[in-house]
Amino acid sequence: MQAKHVQFLIAVAIVVAMPLFMQSGSLASEVLIYGLAAMGCNLLLGYTGLLSFGQGIFFGLGSYTLGILLTRLPLPMPVALASAVLMGAAGAALVGWVAIRQRGTYFVMLTLAFAQMFYFIAYSLPGLTGGDNGLMDIPRHSIAVAGQTVLPLASPWQYYGFVAVLFLLVFWLLRRVCDSIFGRTLLAVRDNEERAAAVGYNLRLLKLQAFVISGAVTGLAGALHALMTGIAPLSNAEYHTSEMILVMTVIGGSGNLLASLLGAAFYVLLGDWLSTLWPRWLLILGVVLMVVSLGMQGGLWGLCQKLWQLARGGKANDKADGKALAPAKEGHA
What we know:
Elements: H1 3-21, H2 25-48, H3 55-72, H4 77-99, H5 105-124, H6 126-129, E1 143-145, E2 148-151, H7 156-179, H8 181-191, H9 193-199, H10 203-229, H11 239-252, H12 257-275, H13 281-295, H14 299-332
Antiparallel strand pairs: 1-2
């Protein structure tokens, strides 16, 4: 079985197992939502080599778009979700079109500047975004067809099922993108831009396309988060959100979509557990993240690969020892 199929089956197993081991449907939904955001970031960082601090822009755009459409216009929820995806893609196209004109530190600074600018725009438009209070009372209606409820979303676990389906669909689509010629070309750009340009690839177009896909996925994550909490807060557009998504991506392991889910689960679940121990839990979380960063440069996915290789190596050695001992016993007899 191919590795991409194995990873998808692992993702399905994780999604199915979470309701069995977790008591909070909202917390489980949050893991998948931030897993989506981390996958969008991973497409830029792990596959294209772009360190972006602007992911909070697309996350916030998704939240605000869905909140505005559902609170002020009588639109069906699927239409509002699709609009959030389009708005995230449009915002990423604008940010990417400007940012990819620079490289290295200047690229990072441009994405950070866009993030700060978007935050202050959202803060300065209380009539549209709710300002510091955010958009409140976002409804979460069940999905209905011809007046008949098809998918109820009232309870946290019902909503988790809806998020899980979308997560697996996006995971499968991104897996197809990464395994395509386009995805392989992004890896070539990441590894050696000069050589990729010499071959004849349009680097700006490739980076812009990666930005748009990343923005669309992150916008969906922001919309699902607003739908889960019933509010589109200003904090979704803060620099901290971009930083958090980036940390999830790095902790999980860049260059692998399943690692993004591991990083999101680690960050969300560890933060939830530490918050019950001490009000200043972010200090403890910072120390844990430092230890992980210093001791596991490949992230959690790299650690899992090493453990798997050690386990397989041990079994292989055991089989080799058994084969080596068998002739010796026969000769002795």
